[in-house]
């Protein structure tokens, strides 16, 4: 069964939240997916557009390599390692993740040295199990110690349905993730490591004379990352992100599909839903004033107001009636009014129902008027 959900951090009232969630649900009423679990997120508004069993705990397979890469990016960012630094290829890495293991591999030679930069590409593009072990041993000394770093980061990010035992995702009964956690993880990578993220869009990488292509079926269709995964227990999974022509980004995770072809078909359908089935409705631009609020005792009789940033909704394309807005002052506003002071609330309604409220702030200073002007104002107000 598929369901829809809406991030309602700023929605006021249960009825309003229900109406908006129902609106989103209606747009995808006919959408079905063969994935065991799935989450589709609008990146900028953090709105969940679609979900199916989002918190089911499943084996991560190679999708756990997203957390491995995140730890590597963290170590680079804090200066603990360098891109040109090299790590040794141990026998453990060679036997467990190398060509003889039968899994995805970077084909690292035993007892060789490999740079961190190449390891990152070997993990992100080739999904090399051997590359993850070399990175884990080089950063933390051992796979178990590296798994501790992974779980510490998972806790920091609020991944409540995830636990990691190894850096590559090969089967282990103690290892699990959820679709919601995978989307949270991918979103964090995109936001926090913009310099590293483009690596996920590279379609091939050559190392040791061997060229391998990314397994992400969406890269040729407009997606710009992130990762695929597969084991017999987990099925075929994918975490992906893409932008539309206007720059609106979606991020989604899908797990438990039965074949490479099914993964490609279902992922393409999910990407189409996210990019074409929804649109942004801008209520107020970030640099735009919403109107004015009356001020008493000031050199000006009103002050222009604006929001802290752009106010917008993500909603199903072609949704019915327009929104209405109303500016509600926060009590009588008396001068002096400093720029940035909260002076009003924008009430946004649709079909008579309040769907959202946003604070509004003074866009300029309004100084206190002189005594004579204030007396005249009081006299005039008395006769009104």
TrEMBL record:
Biological source species: Aureimonas phyllosphaerae
Pathways involved: Cell wall biogenesis; peptidoglycan biosynthesis
Binding site for substrate: 227
Record: active site: 62 (acyl-ester intermediate), 65 (proton acceptor), 127
InterPro entries named among the record's database cross-references: Beta-lactam/transpept-like (IPR012338), Peniciliin-bd_prot_C_sf (IPR015956), Peptidase_S11 (IPR018044), Peptidase_S11_C (IPR012907), Peptidase_S11_C_sf (IPR037167), Peptidase_S11_N (IPR001967)
SMART domains according to UniProt: PBP5_C
Record-annotated Peptidase S11 D-Ala-D-Ala carboxypeptidase A C-terminal domain positions: 278-368
Signal peptide (UniProt feature, chain positions): 1-30
Keywords: Carboxypeptidase, Cell shape, Cell wall biogenesis/degradation, Hydrolase, Peptidoglycan synthesis, Protease, Signal
Record's keyword annotation contains Secreted: no
Stored Gene3D superfamilies: D-Ala-D-Ala carboxypeptidase, C-terminal domain, DD-peptidase/beta-lactamase superfamily
EC number: 3.4.16.4
Catalytic reactions of this protein: Preferential cleavage: (Ac)2-L-Lys-D-Ala-|-D-Ala. Also transpeptidation of peptidyl-alanyl moieties that are N-acyl substituents of D-alanine
GO MF, one example: serine-type D-Ala-D-Ala carboxypeptidase activity
Physiological role: Removes C-terminal D-alanyl residues from sugar-peptide cell wall precursors.
Record GO biological process: cell wall organization; peptidoglycan biosynthetic process; proteolysis; regulation of cell shape
Protein name in the entry: serine-type D-Ala-D-Ala carboxypeptidase
Family of this protein: Belongs to the peptidase S11 family.
């Amino acid at each position: 069964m598929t369901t829809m959900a809406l991030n309602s951090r700023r929605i006021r009232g249960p009825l309003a939240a229900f109406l908006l969630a129902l609106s989103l649900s209606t747009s995808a009423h006919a959408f079905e997916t063969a994935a065991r679990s799935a989450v589709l997120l609008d990146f900028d508004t953090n709105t969940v557009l679609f979900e199916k069993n989002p918190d089911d705990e499943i084996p991560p397979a190679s999708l756990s390599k997203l957390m491995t890469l995140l730890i590597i990016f963290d170590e680079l960012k804090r200066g603990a390692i360098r891109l040109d630094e090299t790590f040794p290829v141990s026998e453990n890495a060679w036997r467990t993740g190398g060509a003889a293991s039968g899994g995805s591999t970077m084909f690292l030679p035993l007892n060789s040295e490999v740079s961190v930069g190449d390891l990152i590409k070997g993990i992100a593009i080739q999904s090399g199990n051997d590359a993850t072990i070399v990175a884990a041993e080089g950063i933390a000394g051992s796979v178990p110690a590296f798994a501790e770093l992974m779980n510490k980061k998972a806790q920091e990010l609020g991944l409540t349905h995830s636990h990691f035992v190894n850096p590559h995702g090969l089967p282990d009964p103690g290892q699990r993730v959820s679709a919601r956690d995978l989307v949270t993880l991918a979103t964090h990578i995109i936001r926090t490591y913009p310099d590293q993220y483009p690596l996920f869009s590279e379609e091939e990488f050559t190392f040791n004379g061997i060229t391998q292509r990314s397994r992400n079926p969406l890269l040729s269709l407009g997606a710009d990352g992130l990762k695929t995964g597969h084991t017999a227990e987990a099925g075929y999974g994918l975490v992906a992100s893409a932008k539309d022509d206007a720059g609106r980004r979606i991020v989604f995770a899908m797990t438990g599909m039965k074949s490479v072809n099914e993964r490609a078909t279902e992922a393409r359908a999910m990407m189409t839903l996210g990019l074409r089935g929804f649109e942004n409705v801008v209520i107020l631009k970030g640099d735009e004033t919403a109107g004015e609020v009356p001020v008493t005792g000031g050199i000006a009789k009103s002050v222009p107001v604006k929001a802290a940033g752009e106010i917008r909704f993500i909603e199903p394309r072609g949704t019915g009636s327009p929104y209405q807005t109303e500016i509600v002052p926060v009590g009588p506003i008396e001068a002096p009014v400093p720029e940035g002071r909260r002076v009003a609330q924008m009430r946004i309604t649709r079909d008579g129902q309040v769907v959202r409220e946003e604070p509004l702030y003074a866009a300029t200073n309004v100084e206190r008027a002189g005594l004579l002007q204030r007396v005249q104002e009081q006299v005039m107000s008395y006769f009104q």
